[in-house]
Amino acid sequence: MKDVYILAIESSCDETSIAIVKNGNEVISLSTNTQISIHQNYGGVVPELASRMHTENILYVLDAALKKSNISINDINAVAVTYGPGLMGSLLIGIEAAKVISYIYKKPLIAVNHMAGHIYANKLSNGMNFPLIALVVSGGHTDIIYMKEDYSFQVLGSTLDDAIGEAYDKIARVLGLKYPGGPNIERLALNGNPSYKLPIPMKDQSLNMSFSGLKSSIVNLVHNECQKGKEVNKEDLACSFQTVAVNELIRKLEMAINTVDVKNVIIAGGVSANKYLRTKVKELTDKYSIKLNVPSFEYCTDNAAMIGAAAYYLYQNNIFSDLNLNAMPNENIY
Amino acid sequence: MYSLFIDTHFKNILIGLFKEKKLVDTIYKKDVINTSEIVMSNINEILTRNNCDSKILSEVVVCNGPGSFTGVRVGVTIAKTFAYLLKIPIYTISSLELVAITNDLKDGIYGVKENNGVYIEKMTAGKFNENINYLKNTEILSINDKILYENELNIENLFEHNYLLHTTNSFDVNPLYVKSINVTNK
Questions:
Q1: Does pLDDT of A62 surpass 60?
Q2: Which of A164, A256, B33, B168 is the most exposed place for a label (fewest CB within 10 A)?
Q3: Is the pTM above the cut of 0.90?
Q4: Tell me, what's the ipTM?
Q5: Does A324 touch chain B (CB under 8 A)?
């Protein structure tokens, strides 16, 4: 079979990223401009600022991705772009650039869902063996998905309120840590003990999850201690939070494993970079002798390579978009 | 030689095609809601109906604002990507300069509306004072009748005012925002 090269663009939040991916599983080149240091000043992503930065950076990122690849655009088979979910103004920059490339070089345009991208990031490392369970954990999502085959997403359980990554970020803010909060909490937790008594999120038997109660209890705890003139032990609190939150994920994942027959468990999304989570999921899948696949760290956070990986299936099935493509900030695949 | 003109700075979208600097065709869309959905398809439309392939373009001119932030970004991103891929020059012109050209560059205060206010700039002796101000709708009332607003833009004479077309490396073409972002440091 002929090799398929897809040029992919991702600009849904605060990373401008462009990649060239071969056959949906091999990254030929990847160029990413992250705006983290800029948004850090505000404690989170400022949408208008993110859109401005994407506009400034887009050609630099495109140029770098093309130069690294030694491939001419003429030799590319399709142009893929994230159409949502994400920030409207940010998504549009990637979409318009993708349309122009697709138009000038007469290559099909492929609209890729950002969350499908996170899941398919696994194709870039260990692959995906169906049927599988995908644990999707990010700043906007906490879902347990059953995938019978490619692009079949059945939600088994989901967070009813905050996403786990959102809880990490908010707790990081209360503890005075920089954005993005996840990696900083994880670092603190390494030196702490789970000594704080925190509420267990949801004691029910559904596969749904909840993290806002846990988050609020920590916010209140920090404020109460502060009013008494006392300081919390940040390491211990970070460790306590992470232990409770991850245990909850694992408990629900185990229930899911007992509900459906799968060959493979995969994790996806920004929080899948969390080493404590990875260790705990590994313990669980070992217990059930199920193969665990995790994306490489570089493809956990937002990047265009995963969009190229997710686009491959759409390319093979001739699922193309056109010049009227618009951003869909709230579009979910499942 | 063909030149492509793109203006998406607010609700009315104007796309123009020039041959040897003479305007040969335009597409004008009023009160557009989803700019992103229509701009590229109408660029395709204007090129197709004039039997042009995009690769025939020799330059691109884009209005880089001020106006709607998102609207301007859509036009600017399209224009700079065209310029980069086709390796052709890109020129920017401000929305206020376009209104001035439409009004034969007569002296006065020019205005470009946006949802909550107006961007204004003063022209004396055929030259802008290069100081764009943003006034909220409530602040503009007293001088409203003195402002020359855009109606339908006329770009027939665009290339007769070469000095209003600003050229930059395509990588560094960015919108004119005028307004800064309001966020509090935490």
A1: yes
A2: B33
A3: yes
A4: 0.96
A5: yes
